[in-house]
Amino acid sequence: MEMLPRLKGIKCAAGLFFLFRGEVEMSRKLLLAAAMTALALVLAVPASPATAAQSDTVNITVIISHTIGVEITEGAYDFGTLSVGTTVVSGSSLTVTNTGTGPDETYLLSCSDTDDWLCGSTPGNDVFVLSAKFNSYAPGSFGAGDILGAAPIAADATHFAGDEIGSDVPYNEVRHLWLQLQTPTSTTSSAVQTIVLTITASIS
User: Which candidate, 120, 121, 112, 128, places its Cα nearest to that of 186?
Assistant: First the structure.
């Protein structure tokens, strides 16, 4: 008779165990189902498209490579036949043009020796003097600042300047260059002497 209450107690405990286990399994299934549902909802929501800019910018840079250029229209000038100790001004000017690609230019002037004469600042035995001046008409005089030498001299307000100037010459503009030649005071040569006048342009 005493065994009956024990058996009933065991049955009751076993029932409670299986009931608890069943609730745990049910909770796990519910949690799994909820997780699957949430995942399905996330996958079902379409991804938001990336926001596109309505406009954008790009920096574009460029540098101009300038060309320096000068042109003397006349290929040569002939003073003709002169005596020693003579000073003569050219009968016409040389036409000098800035033929570069835009920048203002300054001209540097120089002259060469000849086969028999030297270029100098004062006439002498086999020494001549060549002067130059930028002017719109034949100059009345030439000064010390107009004398050419073997080394290039830059034109400015005190060198080779008349009513025109050989510095800061704009693109495609013309300057008129007049020459004065002082022949040697004496010479043993009667051959033709060729003086090379060089004008070199630089960016102002």
Answer: 128
Q: What is the pLDDT of residues 164-202, one digit of tens each?
A: 999 999 999 999 999 999 999 999 999 999 999 999 999
pTM of the model: 0.72
Q: Is 70-203 assigned to CATH 2.60.40?
A: yes
Domain-wise residue ranges, the chain: 1-40, 70-203
User: What does the alpha-carbon distance between residue 3 and residue 6 come to, in Å, rounded to a whole number?
Assistant: 5
